[in-house]
Design brief:
alpha/beta, nine-stranded mixed β-sheet, about 325 residues, single chain, 7 helices
Protein backbone atom coordinates (compact mmCIF):
# COMPACT_ATOMS: atom_id res chain seq x y z
CA UNK A 1 0.00 0.00 0.00
CA UNK A 2 1.07 3.56 -0.67
CA UNK A 3 0.96 6.46 1.76
CA UNK A 4 -1.47 8.24 -0.57
CA UNK A 5 -4.00 5.50 0.25
CA UNK A 6 -4.29 6.87 3.80
CA UNK A 7 -5.17 10.46 3.01
CA UNK A 8 -8.34 12.43 3.70
CA UNK A 9 -9.39 16.08 3.71
CA UNK A 10 -10.34 17.49 7.09
CA UNK A 11 -12.13 20.82 7.45
CA UNK A 12 -9.87 22.86 9.80
CA UNK A 13 -12.79 23.83 12.04
CA UNK A 14 -13.15 20.16 13.10
CA UNK A 15 -9.77 20.20 14.86
CA UNK A 16 -10.63 20.46 18.56
CA UNK A 17 -8.65 23.41 19.95
CA UNK A 18 -9.82 22.93 23.55
CA UNK A 19 -10.99 19.98 25.67
CA UNK A 20 -14.55 19.43 26.83
CA UNK A 21 -15.20 20.36 30.46
CA UNK A 22 -16.61 16.87 31.15
CA UNK A 23 -14.11 14.39 29.72
CA UNK A 24 -16.65 11.58 29.43
CA UNK A 25 -19.08 13.68 27.38
CA UNK A 26 -16.91 13.36 24.27
CA UNK A 27 -18.62 11.58 21.40
CA UNK A 28 -17.90 7.90 20.84
CA UNK A 29 -18.16 6.27 17.43
CA UNK A 30 -18.62 2.51 17.86
CA UNK A 31 -17.31 0.39 15.00
CA UNK A 32 -18.04 -3.31 14.74
CA UNK A 33 -15.55 -4.99 12.40
CA UNK A 34 -17.56 -8.20 11.98
CA UNK A 35 -20.87 -6.50 11.19
CA UNK A 36 -19.26 -3.53 9.41
CA UNK A 37 -21.62 -1.35 11.44
CA UNK A 38 -21.22 2.12 12.94
CA UNK A 39 -23.10 3.61 15.91
CA UNK A 40 -22.90 7.03 17.55
CA UNK A 41 -22.82 7.56 21.32
CA UNK A 42 -20.78 9.25 24.08
CA UNK A 43 -17.96 7.93 26.25
CA UNK A 44 -20.16 7.85 29.35
CA UNK A 45 -22.00 4.93 27.74
CA UNK A 46 -18.83 2.94 26.99
CA UNK A 47 -19.76 0.22 29.58
CA UNK A 48 -22.85 -0.62 27.52
CA UNK A 49 -20.62 -1.89 24.70
CA UNK A 50 -18.45 -4.07 26.93
CA UNK A 51 -19.11 -7.19 28.98
CA UNK A 52 -18.53 -7.95 32.62
CA UNK A 53 -15.00 -9.35 32.89
CA UNK A 54 -13.61 -7.47 29.87
CA UNK A 55 -10.26 -5.77 30.49
CA UNK A 56 -9.35 -2.18 29.65
CA UNK A 57 -5.58 -1.62 29.48
CA UNK A 58 -4.43 1.99 30.01
CA UNK A 59 -1.12 3.84 29.66
CA UNK A 60 -0.22 5.48 33.00
CA UNK A 61 2.56 7.70 31.63
CA UNK A 62 2.63 11.34 32.73
CA UNK A 63 3.25 14.29 30.42
CA UNK A 64 6.01 16.57 31.62
CA UNK A 65 6.35 20.31 30.85
CA UNK A 66 8.97 19.53 28.21
CA UNK A 67 9.05 22.86 26.31
CA UNK A 68 11.60 25.31 27.67
CA UNK A 69 12.36 28.91 26.67
CA UNK A 70 15.78 30.34 27.45
CA UNK A 71 18.67 32.52 26.37
CA UNK A 72 22.21 32.08 25.09
CA UNK A 73 24.99 33.93 26.93
CA UNK A 74 24.73 36.56 24.15
CA UNK A 75 21.04 37.09 24.92
CA UNK A 76 19.69 35.29 21.86
CA UNK A 77 16.41 33.42 22.33
CA UNK A 78 16.44 29.60 22.36
CA UNK A 79 13.63 27.05 22.50
CA UNK A 80 14.36 23.56 23.84
CA UNK A 81 11.83 20.75 23.39
CA UNK A 82 12.74 17.60 25.31
CA UNK A 83 11.77 14.59 23.19
CA UNK A 84 13.16 11.42 24.82
CA UNK A 85 14.63 10.63 28.22
CA UNK A 86 18.03 8.92 27.94
CA UNK A 87 19.10 8.44 31.56
CA UNK A 88 19.49 10.47 34.74
CA UNK A 89 19.47 14.16 33.67
CA UNK A 90 20.23 13.42 30.01
CA UNK A 91 17.62 13.93 27.29
CA UNK A 92 17.37 14.18 23.55
CA UNK A 93 15.93 17.54 22.56
CA UNK A 94 15.00 19.62 19.56
CA UNK A 95 16.71 22.99 19.92
CA UNK A 96 15.66 26.06 17.96
CA UNK A 97 17.46 29.38 17.59
CA UNK A 98 20.36 31.00 15.74
CA UNK A 99 23.90 29.56 15.79
CA UNK A 100 22.99 26.58 17.95
CA UNK A 101 25.94 24.22 18.47
CA UNK A 102 27.53 21.71 20.83
CA UNK A 103 28.74 23.10 24.16
CA UNK A 104 26.15 25.87 24.28
CA UNK A 105 24.66 26.55 27.71
CA UNK A 106 21.06 27.78 27.63
CA UNK A 107 19.89 29.76 30.66
CA UNK A 108 16.26 28.87 31.45
CA UNK A 109 16.21 30.52 34.89
CA UNK A 110 18.70 31.60 37.52
CA UNK A 111 18.75 28.08 38.95
CA UNK A 112 18.18 26.10 35.75
CA UNK A 113 20.35 25.61 32.65
CA UNK A 114 20.37 23.23 29.69
CA UNK A 115 23.76 22.25 28.26
CA UNK A 116 24.00 20.97 24.69
CA UNK A 117 26.41 18.03 24.88
CA UNK A 118 26.27 16.48 21.42
CA UNK A 119 24.71 17.20 18.03
CA UNK A 120 22.71 14.15 16.91
CA UNK A 121 20.94 15.23 13.72
CA UNK A 122 19.32 18.31 12.25
CA UNK A 123 18.08 20.35 15.22
CA UNK A 124 18.43 17.41 17.62
CA UNK A 125 20.93 17.34 20.50
CA UNK A 126 21.83 15.28 23.53
CA UNK A 127 21.33 17.71 26.40
CA UNK A 128 21.88 17.77 30.14
CA UNK A 129 19.49 19.44 32.58
CA UNK A 130 21.50 21.36 35.16
CA UNK A 131 19.55 22.12 38.32
CA UNK A 132 19.45 20.92 41.91
CA UNK A 133 16.15 19.15 41.08
CA UNK A 134 15.65 18.98 37.29
CA UNK A 135 12.11 17.55 37.40
CA UNK A 136 11.01 20.23 39.86
CA UNK A 137 12.66 22.84 37.62
CA UNK A 138 10.73 21.50 34.61
CA UNK A 139 7.43 21.90 36.47
CA UNK A 140 8.42 25.41 37.58
CA UNK A 141 9.72 26.79 34.28
CA UNK A 142 8.58 24.39 31.55
CA UNK A 143 5.51 24.43 29.37
CA UNK A 144 3.23 21.53 28.37
CA UNK A 145 4.14 20.72 24.74
CA UNK A 146 0.64 20.76 23.30
CA UNK A 147 0.46 19.60 19.66
CA UNK A 148 1.37 22.16 16.97
CA UNK A 149 -1.96 21.75 15.14
CA UNK A 150 -3.72 23.45 18.08
CA UNK A 151 -2.07 26.66 16.81
CA UNK A 152 -1.96 28.30 20.24
CA UNK A 153 0.27 28.59 23.26
CA UNK A 154 -0.13 26.41 26.33
CA UNK A 155 -2.83 27.64 28.73
CA UNK A 156 -3.63 26.71 32.33
CA UNK A 157 -6.39 24.36 31.15
CA UNK A 158 -3.78 22.19 29.39
CA UNK A 159 -2.01 21.46 32.68
CA UNK A 160 -5.17 19.66 33.77
CA UNK A 161 -6.76 18.30 30.60
CA UNK A 162 -3.68 17.31 28.55
CA UNK A 163 -3.06 14.69 31.22
CA UNK A 164 -4.94 11.52 32.12
CA UNK A 165 -6.62 11.33 35.53
CA UNK A 166 -4.44 8.29 36.36
CA UNK A 167 -1.10 9.65 35.08
CA UNK A 168 1.70 8.43 37.36
CA UNK A 169 5.07 7.88 35.71
CA UNK A 170 6.78 10.98 34.36
CA UNK A 171 8.39 10.85 30.95
CA UNK A 172 6.00 11.64 28.08
CA UNK A 173 6.12 14.70 25.85
CA UNK A 174 2.64 13.94 24.49
CA UNK A 175 -0.48 12.55 26.10
CA UNK A 176 -1.92 9.09 25.41
CA UNK A 177 -4.97 10.87 24.05
CA UNK A 178 -7.48 7.99 23.96
CA UNK A 179 -7.30 7.98 27.76
CA UNK A 180 -8.13 11.69 28.09
CA UNK A 181 -11.84 10.79 27.84
CA UNK A 182 -11.78 8.84 31.11
CA UNK A 183 -12.93 10.81 34.16
CA UNK A 184 -12.90 9.47 37.72
CA UNK A 185 -16.69 9.13 37.41
CA UNK A 186 -16.41 7.00 34.25
CA UNK A 187 -13.73 4.80 35.82
CA UNK A 188 -16.04 4.22 38.80
CA UNK A 189 -18.91 3.44 36.44
CA UNK A 190 -16.76 0.84 34.64
CA UNK A 191 -16.00 -0.74 38.04
CA UNK A 192 -19.73 -0.98 38.76
CA UNK A 193 -20.23 -2.86 35.49
CA UNK A 194 -17.51 -5.35 36.45
CA UNK A 195 -15.12 -4.20 33.74
CA UNK A 196 -11.51 -4.73 34.81
CA UNK A 197 -8.56 -2.45 34.25
CA UNK A 198 -4.78 -2.78 34.07
CA UNK A 199 -1.86 -0.53 33.19
CA UNK A 200 1.25 -0.41 31.07
CA UNK A 201 3.67 2.49 30.73
CA UNK A 202 4.86 3.86 27.41
CA UNK A 203 6.55 7.25 27.40
CA UNK A 204 5.25 8.96 24.29
CA UNK A 205 8.07 10.70 22.43
CA UNK A 206 8.10 13.35 19.74
CA UNK A 207 8.57 10.49 17.26
CA UNK A 208 4.84 9.85 17.59
CA UNK A 209 4.30 12.98 15.48
CA UNK A 210 7.10 12.23 13.02
CA UNK A 211 5.60 12.40 9.52
CA UNK A 212 5.96 9.51 7.10
CA UNK A 213 8.10 10.77 4.23
CA UNK A 214 8.13 7.69 1.99
CA UNK A 215 5.41 6.60 -0.42
CA UNK A 216 5.99 2.91 0.31
CA UNK A 217 4.64 2.56 3.86
CA UNK A 218 6.85 -0.49 4.50
CA UNK A 219 9.97 1.67 4.26
CA UNK A 220 9.02 3.90 7.20
CA UNK A 221 10.55 3.42 10.66
CA UNK A 222 9.15 4.65 13.96
CA UNK A 223 11.40 6.03 16.69
CA UNK A 224 12.09 3.95 19.78
CA UNK A 225 10.06 4.67 22.91
CA UNK A 226 10.54 3.38 26.43
CA UNK A 227 7.85 1.05 27.75
CA UNK A 228 7.01 -1.27 30.65
CA UNK A 229 4.48 -4.09 30.71
CA UNK A 230 4.34 -5.37 34.32
CA UNK A 231 3.88 -9.01 35.20
CA UNK A 232 0.53 -8.42 36.93
CA UNK A 233 -0.86 -6.92 33.71
CA UNK A 234 0.34 -9.91 31.67
CA UNK A 235 -1.17 -12.39 34.14
CA UNK A 236 -4.51 -10.57 34.09
CA UNK A 237 -4.50 -10.53 30.27
CA UNK A 238 -3.92 -14.30 30.22
CA UNK A 239 -6.76 -14.80 32.71
CA UNK A 240 -9.13 -12.65 30.65
CA UNK A 241 -8.25 -14.56 27.48
CA UNK A 242 -8.83 -17.90 29.19
CA UNK A 243 -12.27 -16.71 30.29
CA UNK A 244 -13.14 -15.77 26.71
CA UNK A 245 -13.39 -12.06 27.52
CA UNK A 246 -11.93 -9.10 25.57
CA UNK A 247 -8.61 -7.30 26.01
CA UNK A 248 -9.37 -3.67 25.08
CA UNK A 249 -6.35 -1.46 24.41
CA UNK A 250 -7.03 2.17 25.31
CA UNK A 251 -4.93 3.96 22.71
CA UNK A 252 -2.33 3.12 20.09
CA UNK A 253 0.48 3.30 22.68
CA UNK A 254 -1.12 0.44 24.60
CA UNK A 255 -1.55 -1.56 21.39
CA UNK A 256 2.16 -1.21 20.59
CA UNK A 257 3.19 -2.06 24.15
CA UNK A 258 1.07 -5.21 24.35
CA UNK A 259 2.06 -6.40 20.89
CA UNK A 260 5.83 -5.80 21.30
CA UNK A 261 6.39 -9.00 23.31
CA UNK A 262 2.99 -10.70 23.39
CA UNK A 263 1.98 -12.21 26.75
CA UNK A 264 5.40 -11.44 28.30
CA UNK A 265 6.44 -8.88 30.94
CA UNK A 266 8.82 -6.40 29.37
CA UNK A 267 10.71 -3.20 30.07
CA UNK A 268 12.86 -1.50 27.47
CA UNK A 269 12.58 0.20 24.10
CA UNK A 270 10.04 -0.57 21.41
CA UNK A 271 10.10 0.47 17.77
CA UNK A 272 7.20 -1.75 16.76
CA UNK A 273 5.62 -0.33 13.61
CA UNK A 274 2.14 -1.66 12.88
CA UNK A 275 0.65 -1.19 9.42
CA UNK A 276 -1.88 -3.15 7.31
CA UNK A 277 -0.92 -6.79 7.04
CA UNK A 278 0.06 -7.05 10.72
CA UNK A 279 -1.48 -9.94 12.70
CA UNK A 280 -2.64 -8.87 16.17
CA UNK A 281 -1.86 -11.36 18.92
CA UNK A 282 -3.13 -9.79 22.16
CA UNK A 283 -5.56 -6.96 21.43
CA UNK A 284 -9.24 -7.83 20.81
CA UNK A 285 -10.68 -4.32 20.74
CA UNK A 286 -9.35 -0.79 20.71
CA UNK A 287 -10.30 2.71 21.84
CA UNK A 288 -8.61 5.45 19.87
CA UNK A 289 -8.99 9.09 18.82
CA UNK A 290 -9.26 10.34 15.24
CA UNK A 291 -5.76 10.64 13.79
CA UNK A 292 -3.97 12.79 11.27
CA UNK A 293 -4.00 11.72 7.61
CA UNK A 294 -0.88 9.89 6.36
CA UNK A 295 0.23 9.16 9.94
CA UNK A 296 1.64 5.97 11.47
CA UNK A 297 -1.25 6.04 13.97
CA UNK A 298 -3.83 5.98 11.16
CA UNK A 299 -1.93 3.05 9.62
CA UNK A 300 -2.06 1.16 12.93
CA UNK A 301 -5.82 1.63 13.26
CA UNK A 302 -6.27 0.63 9.60
CA UNK A 303 -4.28 -2.54 10.29
CA UNK A 304 -6.77 -3.39 13.04
CA UNK A 305 -10.06 -2.55 11.33
CA UNK A 306 -9.26 -2.39 7.61
CA UNK A 307 -8.29 0.68 5.59
CA UNK A 308 -11.56 1.06 3.71
CA UNK A 309 -13.70 0.64 6.83
CA UNK A 310 -11.64 3.17 8.78
CA UNK A 311 -11.56 5.76 6.00
CA UNK A 312 -15.32 5.40 5.47
CA UNK A 313 -15.79 5.90 9.23
CA UNK A 314 -13.63 9.04 9.04
CA UNK A 315 -15.83 10.40 6.25
CA UNK A 316 -18.91 9.76 8.40
CA UNK A 317 -17.17 11.47 11.34
CA UNK A 318 -16.51 14.52 9.16
CA UNK A 319 -20.10 14.58 7.94
CA UNK A 320 -21.40 14.21 11.52
CA UNK A 321 -19.05 16.98 12.73
CA UNK A 322 -17.01 14.90 15.15
CA UNK A 323 -14.11 16.72 16.83
CA UNK A 324 -10.67 15.52 15.68
CA UNK A 325 -7.22 14.89 17.15
CA UNK A 326 -5.89 15.12 20.71
CA UNK A 327 -8.75 17.03 22.33
CA UNK A 328 -11.33 15.54 20.00
CA UNK A 329 -13.78 12.66 20.09
CA UNK A 330 -12.91 8.97 19.84
CA UNK A 331 -13.93 5.56 18.61
CA UNK A 332 -14.34 2.09 20.01
CA UNK A 333 -13.42 -0.65 17.52
CA UNK A 334 -14.92 -4.03 18.39
Amino acid sequence: MRLEDFDFELPPELIAKYPLKERHMARLMVLNRKERSIKHDIFWNLPLYLEEGDLLVFNDTKVIPARLYGEKPTGGKVEVLLTDHVKDNLWYALVGGKNIKEGLSVQIAQDFRVKLLKHISEGKFLVELLSQDPIKALYTYGHIPIPPYLEREEEHIDRVYYQTVFAQKEGSVAAPTASLHFSEELLNRLDEYGIRKAFITLHVSYGTFKPIKVSDIRAHKVDEEYMEVPEETVELIKKVKQEGKKVVAVGTTVVRALETKPFSPFSGKTDLYIYPGYTFKVVDAMITNFHLPRSSLLLLVSAFAGREFILSAYQIAIKERYRFYSYGDGMLIL
